Each structure stands twice: as C-alpha cells, then as structure tokens.
Here is the input.
Amino acid sequence: MNLLLVGDREIQKINRRYLHHDYATDVIAFEMKEHGVFGDIVVSTDAAKRQAREEGHSVLTETTILVVHGMLHLLGYRDKKKKDRDRMWRKTNDLMKRVS
Here is the structure.
C-alpha cells in the first residue's frame, strides 16, 4: 500500500484529475489491480489538521482515522448511503480502538 500525505491544493488536483471532482477532500483511496498491491491512499494533512481541531483530538489521531477510512474503501466499504456510512464508521471506530 502506498500512503501519500499532501495538502488541500494537491488532493484537489488529484480529485479533479482522477475522480472529476473539483474540490479538496480529506482522503481518497485508489484500489490497485496489480498482484500484491493493496492500493494508494491520499490524505490531506490540511484537512486532518482542521478536522482534528473540530473533533478535539490530535492530528496524528485524525490522520490515522483517515488512513483507516481509506483502507476500508480499499476493502470494499462504501459511504455514499447513510446505512453504508454508519456501517463504515462503526468499523472505523472498532479498528481505532484496536490500534490505540
């Protein structure tokens, strides 16, 4: 797995180029089809800093949450529908307890 830590400007470029969304986001995950490669996860450190402040925890904790979120996407979890988003957050919280 590749992990890229970038700023808002760079993640917006990636989002625009590959997903055709012209805005910054907190995390993007790209599944790889190559044998032995799990995928790429791109995290905006700018978003991690903002969200950490909002949630009242460290930037490291927020970055870890975003990496876990990206890994879940690579494993097939989706978050467009509320039901799927709730399931994904339950799994994220469970995994965060295990890595704490």
Q: What stands out?
A: The longest strand covers residues 39-44. Helices lie at 8-19, 45-55, 59-74, 82-99.
